[in-house]
């Protein structure tokens, strides 16, 4: 878990830094200035320096930051070594795309199992992920250590599926449906409404002109 003392905004930027530092290391770079990182991740360098300061004196003037050290520190904070076990419910267009995508560039996250109501899909695999009947949700999830679920069912099914996921002890839900989900306090929900995101982008584009 992220250290309680780290501000939420900083914690939110860590995965972004982590990803870029990793790709820079893969390109053979050993150190980086806050300015260079700033250009790459589009966060201003003062914010980067402030963010990094929560992890101790990691940089030196005129030298920059040691990439390997930063990755080591951030990995510990992000618990990158701990794999998230993910299920997906609703293998429609979006669900299918996510199964095929399956976060392969992010080697600590993987969708391991999927559920649907459609007999044509049940018993098949997509992107190597087996699809089970949603009737077997409790049975299948109880024999795995899945703690996160992605919800790509139609809106009308969202609430019921969520209740069942919560019953099985799911800790986090990534909700792609437009439904507002009510869950107990100890379950985290991230709501991603693609049409709202698109609308808001279009709104900003129009108003900037
Ligand atoms: P998308 O919204 O992803 O583009 P779609 O338009 O192909 O999908 P939807 O009607 O949104 O289809 O349904 C998404 C998937 O959810 C379908 O494969 C459907 O069979 C499945 N589904 C519907 N109800 C349930 C349910 N209660 N539990 C699990 N899966 C369900």
List the helices and strands and how they pair.
Elements: H1 8-26, E1 31-32, H2 34-41, H3 45-53, E2 59-60, E3 64-66, H4 67-78, E4 84-89, H5 93-101, E5 109-116, E6 125-126, E7 129-133, H6 137-142, E8 148-151, H7 155-167, E9 172-175, E10 188-191, H8 194-208
Helix pairs in contact: 1-4, 2-3
Residues 89-95, 115-118, 134, 152-154, 157, 161 line the site of adenosine-5'-triphosphate (ATP).
Textual characterization of the structure:
The protein is of the alpha/beta class and 209 residues long. The chain folds into two domains: 8-77, Arc Repressor Mutant, subunit A, CATH 1.10.10; 84-196, 3-Layer(aba) Sandwich (Rossmann fold), CATH 3.40.50.720. Helices cover 44% and strands 19% of the residues. It has helices at residues 8-26, 34-41, 45-53, 67-78, 93-101, 137-142, 155-167, 194-208; strands at 31-32, 59-60, 64-66, 84-89, 109-116, 125-126, 129-133, 148-151, 172-175, 188-191. The strands form two sheets. Strands 6-7-5-4-8-9-10 form a seven-stranded mixed β-sheet. Strands 1-3-2 form a three-stranded antiparallel β-sheet. Strand 8 (148-151), helix 7 and strand 9 (172-175) form a beta-alpha-beta unit. Helix 2 crosses helix 3. The chain is globular and about 60 Å long. The model has no long low-confidence stretch (mean pLDDT 89). The protein binds adenosine-5'-triphosphate. Keywords: Cytoplasm, DNA-binding, NAD, Repressor, Transcription, Transcription regulation. Homodimer. Residues 79-180 form the CoA-binding domain.
């Amino acid at each position: 878990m992220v250290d309680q003392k780290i501000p939420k905004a900083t914690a939110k930027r860590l995965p972004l830094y982590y990803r870029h530092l990793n790709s820079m290391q893969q390109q053979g770079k050993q150190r980086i200035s806050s300015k260079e990182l700033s250009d790459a991740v589009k966060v201003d360098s003062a914010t980067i320096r402030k963010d990094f300061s929560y992890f101790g004196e990691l940089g030196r003037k005129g030298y920059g930051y040691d990439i390997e050290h930063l990755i080591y520190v951030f990995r510990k904070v992000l618990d990158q070594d701990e794999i998230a076990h993910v299920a997906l419910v609703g293998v429609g267009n979006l669900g299918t795309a996510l199964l095929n995508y399956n976060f392969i560039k992010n080697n600590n996250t993987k969708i391991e199992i999927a559920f649907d109501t459609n007999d044509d899909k049940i018993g098949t695999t997509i992107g190597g992920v087996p699809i089970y009947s949603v009737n077997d949700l409790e049975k299948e999830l109880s024999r795995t250590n899945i703690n996160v679920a992605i919800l790509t069912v139609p809106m009308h099914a969202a609430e019921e599926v969520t209740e069942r996921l919560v019953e099985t002890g799911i800790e986090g839900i990534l909700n792609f449906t437009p439904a507002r989900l009510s869950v107990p306090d100890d379950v985290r929900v991230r709501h991603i409404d693609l049409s709202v995101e698109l609308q808001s982008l279009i709104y900003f584009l129009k108003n900037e002109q």
